[in-house]
Design brief:
262 residues, mainly alpha, Rossmann fold, two-stranded antiparallel ribbon, 12 helices
Length: 262
């Protein structure tokens, strides 16, 4: 058996659709899609203003599109640049906890510009793959609110905002599912979520919707998140698996490939 990994950083489902054109030239028997976390919701200028984004950031992001994806990229870039400047990381960390998205925005945008576009891309991917007489398999992606490696690095440098350390302790006994329950209650009671909770909430909405979506559209589906009980400990960043996590994902795919299981 030959396995070709075509996963690329920051690729969303639309990017993967474009990549699929190349993948199909390799004449695969099976195409596996493991993703969703990069399909971050787009937000309008008015929504950003209501959500408290700083003026300078609104002008910067205006060069392309307003999106949570770009804000997250901004956070990661500033953290990377912190290797040379010890002032930037603390500023970005503060923004992470001080930017809030209202409930009406989150509920309206989650399905319309996050869940539904991803599902439409998966339907198109299935159509193209099956047109080549290959099989298509959709696998749910595990995601955590914070990346453990990043937190560890910040603590070693003594640079981490105390609120991040409190947040890490807050997550210690949680899983993908219990965290979603907590955040859902928080959204119902407080009517808003910070940037970390918003992104995780929207990703959970996608994962929870995929079971029904796959059945309705006759897509072969493996719910990896539920098979590992949503353990955050299997992630080294917010989305990248540890060695143990990769082994468990490989075992799940191995079971699927076993004759008689498909």
């Amino acid at each position: 058996m030959e396995v070709i990994n075509l996963g690329l950083p920051w690729y969303n489902s639309q990017d993967n659709l474009n990549l699929l054109n190349f993948a199909l030239t390799l004449n695969p028997d099976l195409v596996v899609s493991y993703g969703g976390a990069n399909n971050i919701v787009d937000l309008s200028l008015a929504q950003l203003r209501e959500s408290g984004y700083p003026q300078w950031l609104r002008w910067v992001v205006a060069l392309k599109r307003y999106s949570l994806f770009l804000y997250k990229a901004h956070i990661q870039l500033k953290t990377f640049l912190d290797r040379w400047s010890h002032t930037s990381a603390r500023s970005v960390q503060s923004e992470t906890f001080e930017v809030f998205f209202p409930r009406a925005l989150i509920e309206a945008e989650a399905g319309r510009v996050f869940v539904k576009p991803f599902e439409q891309d998966m339907l198109e991917m299935k159509r193209r793959v099956e047109a080549q007489r290959a099989q298509f398999l959709l696998v749910s992606q595990l995601r955590a609110p914070l990346g453990q490696d990043w937190l560890r690095l910040q603590k070693e440098r003594g640079q981490s905002d105390a609120r991040f350390l409190d947040y890490e302790r807050y997550l210690d006994d949680m899983t993908f599912y219990t965290f979603h329950e907590v955040v859902s209650r928080k959204l119902a009671v407080e009517g808003r979520l910070n940037i970390i909770d918003t992104i995780q909430y929207m990703h959970a909405r996608l994962v929870l919707d995929l079971n029904v979506f796959a059945k309705e559209n006759k897509i072969k589906y493996v719910d990896f998140v539920s098979l590992v009980n949503g353990k955050f400990s299997l992630l080294t960043t917010d989305v990248h698996l540890t060695e143990d996590g990769n082994e468990q994902l490989a075992a799940v795919l191995g079971d699927y490939l076993t004759p008689g299981n498909r």
